[in-house]
Structures are given as structure tokens and as C-alpha cells.
Amino acid sequence: MSDTAKDAAARRRLGNWMPDKEEQSAAFRLEIAARARERRAHTARSSVVLDLGRLIEGDPILRMNLCRSIDEAVARGKQLGYSNVDELLDIIDYLTTFSPPFSETAPVATPMNAILEWPMCMPSGYAVFRDPAFNAQLRRVLSTWSAFLGGPRSRTWLVEDEPNGWFCKAALAKLGMEDFVHDRSREHWGFDSWNAFFTRHLRPGARPVASPDDNQVIVNSCEASPFEVRGDVKLVDHFWIKSQPYSLREMLTSSDEALARKFVGGTVYQGYLSANNYHRWHAPVDGKIVEAYNVDGTYYSDAESEGEDPGGLNDSQGYTTAIAARAVIVIDSINPVIGEMACVFVGMAEVSSCQIVVRPGDDVRKGDELGFFQFGGSTYCLLFQPGVIERFVPQPPWHDDVPPLRVNSALAYARKNARTV
User: Fold this and answer.
1) pTM of the predicted structure, to 2 decimals
2) 22 and 110 belong to one structural domain
3) Dihedrals φ, ψ of 194, to 5°?
4) In what order do the strands lie in the sheet with 410-414?
5) Which of 73, 158, 176, 319 is least surrounded, with the fewest CB atoms within 10 Å of its CB?
6) Whether residue 76 is found in the same domain as residue 32
7) Same domain, 227 and 297
């Protein structure tokens, strides 16, 4: 087996967002493309997709790179469901009114990602999906889609019908709905939209806070599986290379670089969320909110170091902490050993709407809600200053076939004595 084949075989397929097998993804793309063609025959494109088309047509370099990325994928034998930009725009337009169904065997919780997954990792595609103007227009498209998913017409699959309803027996076995607020006696189980279902609230007591009165205990901010723990992080690093080291200045993107400097030499913990799990964020410590802000960024950019593979965005999670749309929340812990720590909630692909519900000056207790990912979840990091962490509860090697760490459960223990830098 070649090194490249070994590398591909060892990739971690994370979070149940996309099918494991390429033929399943290709079948989904072909089906969506057929529906898009049918819709286009009797429905004009939305204004936001028309504007995306005008941007591409009016920028020769962007148009060249996007066209070439499609051609490069097709030349490699990939079944995209489209062969040019015009056909791609029809599919994007169709998806702005699409609600993802449940699938036990071939989940596609991020359908736009499935459509773009090959062009985005082609040689010409990297520049396209980093282009600021292109990403700004994609943000408008995704906001339009999110608005649809926030309305009543998005509830198509919030039903008990087999096999694609989110309340069918197979789906319920994965969702653990008994832990969430819902009402089975009401239509769509009481959810007024797809987003309401995907950002569903936990029942009181479903996720008790670990050691609520022990400020040495730091809890999980998200229902997420461990992805990485790194120490001695740098202010500026080469986040785009194979190892994807964390680069604090880029992660925090604060107007005041002094914030990033506080974490130089410290520790980053990163976890990833699953499509079927809880998507709200909770405070990992008791303290006061110091900073709370959103950072605009990319949506489908992955690292060239991950190679031409549809899992590239999945495997680029370290890289995305520096370039993707995200929310940053800084908490000054009441435990002086911890001091200020930062939470970075990263929206990848169409999971890009990071909603913050706290503001600077707010007091929070461990387990209080900080915000949520609109339409699903993605990946998140907790940043600690040097000398804070005594040990983490999860230890490598990481296992991806086990349930995620529960939100509010113990993640790490701070040192008992004052930290030394």
C-alpha cells in the first residue's frame, strides 16, 4: 500500500455529518442535481443566488478558478451532478429551500458540503474557497438558507415516517430524544422549525454539572468528542501545514493582540460535534465574561496539506480554527489559577451561524448557556494560559466509535497552586 493510500485509510471520519463511502455521496449529489434541474424548469433563481452568479461572472480570476476546480474534479472521474458553474448555481439555489432528511446508512447533514466537497479540494479550488468576496456572498446564501430552516416550511422531515423522518425508530435510537424538550402529542413534536429541532434544549437535569462547587474542575462546553490537545502554543504559527499547529493571533483575531499573548505557551483542547448530538455551548468555569464577539471567515476552505480527499474539510479542523467563521468568548474565572480562558466555537461549512447569548460583564456559572450553532454544530476549542492544567480527563489515543463527552461533564482539572509562567 502506498503512503498516500495508507494516509487515506487512516483518516478519521468524524461526527456523522457525511457518508463514509464516496458512492453514497455521489448518489446524493446526482439525486439533488436532478431535483434542481426540475425546480429550475419552473422556478426562477433567488436574488441571493443571482448575486452570487454575478460575482463569479464579473471576476475573471474567480470564474477561472471555479471552472477549473469543477473540470479537475470531473477529470478525476468524480460524479458531481454538475459540469459547469451554471448547473452548480441551480443546485445551490435548490438547497436554499432544502431540509436534510434522516438517513441511517448514508447521512448527509451538510448537503452543501456534499455538493462542493470535490471542487474545494482540487488544486484550483483552494483559492476559490478562500476568496473574501466569494465567502461574503456565500454568507448571504447560507443566511438565506438558515432563514428557511428557521421557518415552518422546513419541518418536512420532522415526522415519524420511515426511513427518513427524524422521529422514526432508527433516528430516535441515535438522538436520545428523551433527554430533550419535546412534546410527542403535538405536530412535529412541538418544534416550529428545523433549526428549533437542531438547537433543541436539554431537559432540566439531563446534563448535570460536574462538581459545581469545585473550581478546580473544568467542564465540557459542548457535547463533543476529543480531537486534539496541544501544549506550548505559539502566538503565530504555520497553521496551514500538515500538523496544523494552533496560531493564537489568527484564532482570536482580536483588535488587541495582548489577548492572544496571554495564551502563548499555554494549552489548547479541541473537540468536534456530531450531527446527531446537542449543539448549544455552556460555560466551562465560573467567572465573568470579558469578551464575546463573532469573527467572519471562510466556510468551505480546507488545507492543501490534507490532500485531494473529500474528507479534507473534516481533517482540517485545526486549520479552520484560524480561518473559518467563529465565535470567541473570553471568561475570567473566579479561580485565580485559571484566570482568563478563551472559548472558540468554530462553524464549518454550512454550520456557520454562531449565536452568542452572553455579553461582556455577565457573570456565569459552570453549565450556563453561552450560545449555540444555528443548523447543527462543528468544532470548538478551549484555550488555557501556561501552567493552568494539571490533567485532562480524556487521554489519547482518541476513539471515534464511542459516544461523545457529555456537555457539563468533567473535562480537566486545574492545578491547585498558583501557576508559574
Assistant:
1) 0.89
2) yes
3) -60, -45
4) 217-219, 410-414, 389-392
5) 176
6) yes
7) yes
